[in-house]
Amino acid sequence: MPGALDHESPVLARLFALGATGAMETAGEQGPETLAYFPEELPLDLEGAWESVDEVDYVRAYREGLEAVRVGPLVIAPTHRHPALQAGEQVVWLDPATAFGTGHHETTRLALAALSDLDLVGRSVLDVGAGSGILAIAADRLGAASALGVDVDAATVPVARANAALNRSRARFLEGSLDHPALPRTFDVVVANLYAEVHVTLMAAYLERVVPGGRLLLTGVLARLSHLVERALPAGAVPRLRHEGEWVLVEVEVPR
Ligand SMILES: C[S@@+](CC[C@H](N)C(=O)[O-])C[C@H]1O[C@@H](n2cnc3c(N)ncnc32)[C@H](O)[C@@H]1O
Questions:
Q1: Looking at the whole model, is its pTM more than 0.90?
Q2: CA gap 52, 77 in Å, rounded
């Protein structure tokens, strides 16, 4: 659904709330465009046009071209590759399915790198917007005491659980978000790969879920929009920014 939409507005949050199963921002010939994927055409009150997309061909082409991705000690590999592991490397098997997250997107890699740089041994990790489950499964591989993923898209949950089973991972997945009633009250680390505007909306809910002194890792943020996320952080928080291409991860230790 291409359209010249205002990137400073909470349009992406709106699109997901309206049932989008994915969305991204592109340069576009006429200026910035937002592409959102819906399972069917809906009567939306937004500027733009509908275009039908052949999902099956895309997935097949994508699968065939996939290579293993190395981030810190993690090697994210589709099951048809057999990467030779160096000392200290750990493999996470992940086949592309309908859920986002194979390690090939900059934002996923930024989150994997940030998780790899933390000492997760004995820590609890919440992955908000788990998609394929890659971040929670990686956190479990990195020694987290518990790793839990939540996603508002019900279709992702069986995919993430299947990926956890494939990896013999203890990571668990639930349909929902930060307000899920079964969530433990707080976590040592909360990681989320969503969008700048969504992070701003969810900031208070994130902060309620991180222990004082714990870490908040927020990616899916275009560099030109990172100021929105930084502005929404609590007073006294000193963000560290990691960049890959046009994407940023904002990392912050939650003030005690
Ligand atoms: C970009 S994918 C991230 C997947 C994976 N964590 C990764 O880093 O590759 C974002 C996921 O967040 C989910 N999502 C969007 N808004 C959400 C919200 N408010 N709470 C929980 N999940 C959300 C979407 O359904 C989607 O699966």
A1: no
A2: 30
